[in-house]
Amino acid sequence: MNSLEVRQLAYAYPDGTQALYGVDLSIARGERVALLGPNGAGKTTLVMHLNGILTAGHGSVTVAGTPVRKDTLAEIRQRVGLVFQDPDDQLFMPTVRDDVAFGPANAGLRGEDLDRVVKGALERVGMLDAADRPPHHLSFGQRRRVAVATVLAMEPEILVLDEPSSNLDPAARRELAEILRSLDVTVLMVTHDLPYALELCERALILSDGVIAADAPTRTLLSDAELLARHRLELPYGFAIPVM
Ligand code: ADP
């Protein structure tokens, strides 16, 4: 069963702006996929459909076999782990431990079971030592890792990351890459950081003007200068695709 199935998804905002025009997309369990595209392409609108912040104007979104609908929202929000660009939108408790425990406690976990889940999630992002610290005492990169842990604690079917490398220094960027690679979870990563997409995702999609304009191995896609230019995507100055 695929982690994610999007079929003919179209959406117009209430003011009439058509943001998505029939998006088709399947992501198999365990894949890591980069979602690329210029500003205004519809990436945020697509992501907001994955956990039901927006519901399909036309078409369907299915997560591990469960359709995203008003009556399935609780289950969908557990299965789709959204990591926001700004960790401070995600962390609001007095300690790291409380933040990571929040979701599973809400889902009814208590006592030793809850402790085990929190510990496991913090271990996976290398932040167990910070469990008793207030999130605002941590560096930005550490806060982003804790934000990932809050989502992992819910054992999601798919982890959706919005610009995971933004505002990270090179070491924090690399550490997060190592963590993401070590996770045994399906990942969809929205990013403008094309080298990061290449490093982490075997497959990449270009969303452009509300449709999937390309779906290919990341290496193939980033080697196509004409395709990139057509969709306002640019590799950093001097960057060359490394030879395998
Ligand atoms: P991206 O995340 O790729 O930058 P968005 O999904 O934010 O793209 O935007 C897709 C299109 O929808 C753009 O034309 C944008 O202006 C429009 N849009 C986004 N949010 C709204 C909104 N709340 N109301 C009307 N139009 C919107």
What does this structure look like?
The protein has helices at 43-50, 73-79, 96-106, 111-124, 140-152, 170-182, 194-200, 218-222, 225-230; strands spanning 2-12, 18-28, 32-36, 58-63, 66-67, 80-83, 158-162, 186-190, 203-208, 211-217. By secondary structure, the chain is α/β, with parallel strands linked by helices. The chain has a domain at 4-89 and 158-230: Rossmann fold. A six-stranded mixed β-sheet has the order 6-7-8-3-9-10, sandwiched between helices. A four-stranded antiparallel β-sheet has the order 2-1-4-5, covered by helices on one side. Helix 4 (111-124) packs across helix 5 (140-152).
User: Tell me, what is the CATH class of the domain at 4-89 and 158-230?
Assistant: Alpha Beta
H/E order of the elements? EEEHEEHEHHHEHEHEEHH
CATH superfamily of the domain at 4-89 and 158-230: P-loop containing nucleotide triphosphate hydrolases
Structural class: alpha/beta
The tally of beta strands, per DSSP, is 10
Q: Calculate the mean pLDDT score and round it.
A: 96
Radius of gyration: 18 Å
Q: Judging by the overall fold, what is the CATH architecture of the domain at 4-89 and 158-230? A: 3-Layer(aba) Sandwich
Helicity level: 25-40%
CATH topology of the domain at 4-89 and 158-230: Rossmann fold
Distance between the termini: 31 Å
Strand content: 25-35%
What keywords describe this structure?
244 residues, alpha/beta, Rossmann fold, 6-stranded mixed beta sheet, 4-stranded antiparallel beta sheet, 10 strands, 34% helix, 25% strand, globular, binds adenosine-5'-diphosphate, cell membrane
